[in-house]
Amino acid sequence: MRLDKYLKVTRLIKRRTVSNEACSAGRVLVNGNIGKPSLTVKEGDIIEIQFGTRTTKVEVINIQDTSKKDEAKELYKIL
Fold first, then answer.
1. What is the count of structural domains for the chain?
2. 29: domain CATH number?
3. 31: domain range?
4. What tens digit of pLDDT does each residue of 10-46 get?
5. Contact 79/58 with Cβ under 8 angstroms?
6. Where are the beta strands (DSSP E) in 1-79?
7. Do the Cβ atoms of 48 and 68 come closer than 8 Å?
């Protein structure tokens, strides 16, 4: 699954266009490397998102095309 879509499905970022812009600006790292929006995300990847002064680091647990609000938090683990 594409990185920008994964961020939207897991609700780490609300909209796909916003996640696409964050990836393009270099504020999203995947396994320590800058993640482009089209990067393929796999289980076990470490995603680091920088929001201003706050940084969120998560590990990909599961990948689904869609998820409900309650199920979204089960797709990743906060580190």
1. 1
2. 3.10.290.10
3. 3-78
4. 999 999 999 999 999 999 999 999 999 999 999 999 9
5. yes
6. 28-30, 33-34, 46-51, 54-60, 76-78
7. no
- What's the pTM value of the predicted model, to 2 decimals? 0.91
38: CB partners within 8 A, 6+ apart: 2, 3, 4
Please state the length of the chain: 79
Calculate the dihedral angle through the C-alpha atoms of 56, 22, 14, 60, rounding to the nearest 10 degrees: -50
Q: Where are the alpha helices (DSSP H) in 16-59?
A: 16-24
> Tokens 């490397």 correspond to what residue?
33
CA 59 to chain centre: 9
Token readout for 71 is 């199920």
